[in-house]
Design a protein that fits this description.
The chain folds into three domains: 113 residues, Probable tRNA modification gtpase trme, domain 1 (Gyrase A, domain 2); 104 residues, Up-down Bundle (Four Helix Bundle (Hemerythrin (Met), subunit A)), CATH 1.20.120; 146 residues, P-loop containing nucleotide triphosphate hydrolases (Rossmann fold). It contains 14 helices and twelve strands. The protein has a six-stranded mixed beta sheet with strand order 3-4-5-2-1-6. The chain binds guanosine-5'-diphosphate and magnesium ion. The site of magnesium ion has 5 residues, from α9.
């Protein structure tokens, strides 16, 4: 029989109220032992909780009963809302732990049971994990959308179409008709599979979840002494990077998490790009080059003609206050870390680029795992095949990718990692 689990689901005591949850086959029996009775389902009831051994009152708690499968976990659930003092919480937990068949839940175990019992799919569990970690409004909105089935509904719709196409492919394989009919079936199926693949491709082009979670990666790069560290400090409004007139001062990558107008940005300072540096600085230059490739937005402080091509590059004419620097060339923003000139314009440009990278409000944003599965399905369908048998196989492969996407199959290895992100009691 499944264990019955329990845990403190609210914050660490002392607090005004503590929420203790229990879930599993013995949840109701345990409630009868410590509360003396079971409340009516879904009706909060004030009941005295007692130590089962001697009947001494521990606290008076609001007790809530949810009958499986219509509960958060899909099992029988009892929730105790008691006073949030440390001794109260400890005593209730000890009383529950003393009942046979009850044990303390592992972090994320309630949610894991919800997933195992089909109450939520894997994408909703991922959304929940993100929701608990969300720090900005935009992160919260995107996570809630995912947690409430924003992607699940789309996956179910796609999966249904795949199943339907598969069924038609199988039927056409079994049907012994003339060759023309088979050719016609092949052509229709192939074109519908391609249409589905291009729908997946459109989804894959949409802004992704990672820049929203980790911040849009804005990397300052260019030759030594261009003013990269000064610019990063000016944008961050704090002295995060060391600034000197000695070329090669910045040797490592410095990451500064910021929010511009509520938009999460990870500002990255790098070592100046040059050859012939000493061993340590060379490592820094290597890291800087790696950052160029990882950048969502690149602030290029070198000569405009030397700017890396491809990607989103903002050309910055730094140290614009110095007379010998002259005017900013066309297409570059003149900026001075010293006087603050141009910083407002630069920030606006960064925000405009970030907007292109971040998911729009209300749009479902795929994370790396989800995108990889959808891309797998897309490739399978795109490659299709010359005949009905290979088409049926491609459809089957696409369906397997969707089963991994929603967590129906083949994801055991990632479950521990995902549910480990949850706190105890969730
Ligand atoms: N006048 C002026 N000097 C600057 C400005 N930005 C940087 N500098 C100076 O240029 C030198 C190199 O700056 P730093 O930020 O370390 O450049 P990095 O090597 O690209 O990181 C330092 O002496 C800074 O004081 C600026 O906007 N105006
Ligand atoms: Mg520097």
């Amino acid at each position: 029989m499944t264990d019955t689990i329990f845990a403190l689901s609210s914050g660490r005591p002392p607090a005004a109220v503590a929420v203790i949850r229990s879930s599993g086959p013995r949840a109701f029996a345990a409630c009868e032992e410590i509360a003396g009775r079971l409340p009516t389902p879904r009706r909060p009831t004030l009941i005295a909780l007692r130590t089962p051994s001697d009947g001494a009152v521990i606290d008076r708690a609001l007790v809530l009963r949810f009958d499986g499968p219509d509960s958060a976990t899909g099992e029988n659930v009892v929730e105790y809302q008691c006073h949030g003092g440390k001794a109260v919480v400890d005593a209730v937990l000890a009383a529950l732990g003393g009942i046979a068949g009850m044990r303390v839940a592992e972090p994320g175990e309630f949610t894991r049971r919800a997933f195992a019992n089909g109450r939520i799919d894997l994408t909703e569990a991922e959304g929940l994990a993100d929701l608990l970690e969300a720090e900005t409004e935009s992160q919260r909105r995107a996570a809630l959308l995912m947690a409430e089935g924003g992607l699940r509904r789309q996956i179910e719709q796609w999966r249904q179409r795949l199943v339907e196409l598969s069924a038609r492919a199988e039927a056409a394989i079994d049907y012994v008709g003339d060759e023309d009919e088979t050719k016609a079936d092949e052509a229709v199926l192939a074109s519908e599979a391609r249409a589905l693949a291009s729908e997946f491709a459109k989804w894959l082009e949409r802004p992704r979840a990672e820049p929203l979670k980790d911040g849009v990666r804005v990397v300052a790069a260019g030759p030594p002494n261009a003013g990269k560290s000064s610019l990063v400090n000016a944008l961050a409004q704090s002295e995060r990077a060391i600034v000197t007139d000695i070329a090669g001062t910045t040797r490592d990558v410095i990451e500064v998490p910021l929010a511009f107008d509520g938009v999460p940005v990870l500002l990255v300072d790098t070592a100046g790009l040059r050859h012939g540096a000493d061993a340590v600085e060379s490592i820094g230059v290597g890291r800087a080059e790696a950052q160029l490739r990882k950048a969502d937005v690149l602030l290029w402080l070198g000569r405009p003609g030397d700017a890396p091509t491809g990607g989103r590059v903002i050309r910055v004419h730094a140290q614009a206050d110095r007379p010998e620097r002259g005017d900013a060339p066309a297409g570059s923003i003149g900026v001075s870390a010293m006087t603050g000139e141009g910083l407002g314009e630069l920030t606006r440009r960064i925000l405009a680029e970030a907007e292109q990278i971040l998911p729009a409000e209300g749009a479902v944003a795929l994370n790396r795992r989800q995108a990889a599965e959808i891309d797998g399905a897309r490739q399978a369908l795109d490659q299709g095949g010359p005949d009905l048998v290979t088409q049926a196989e491609a459809l089957r492969l696409a369906r397997t990718a969707f089963d991994r996407l929603s967590g129906r199959a083949g994801v055991e290895d990632m479950l521990d990692a995902l549910f480990g992100r949850f706190c105890l009691g969730k």
